[in-house]
Amino acid sequence: MENQNFEDRRAFYRFALSVPLLYCNLSLKKMGEALTMNIGANGIGLVTNEQLPPATPLDIWLNASTSGEKFYTKGEVVWSKQVEP
After folding, report:
1. Does the predicted model carry a pTM greater than 0.90?
2. pLDDT digit string (tens) for 30-53?
3. CA proximity to 49, closest of 11, 8, 20, 71
């Protein structure tokens, strides 16, 4: 089981979904924009333009509909990695 990847160990399925969102890095009191890669009952995979270290608390506003309504939630970075553009 050591070679099992992180996604295989998740308790809830993640749906591939690209949704724009706003977040506030509560450690730095800094706003940012991101795009989701996937969403599930217990987490969101997202891509940002800045590195967010593990344990960073976030306020998150997802653009949940075409009417401009936003869905608010709180989160915390569990893991991150740098990817090439």
Report:
1. no
2. 999 999 999 998 899 999 999 999
3. 20
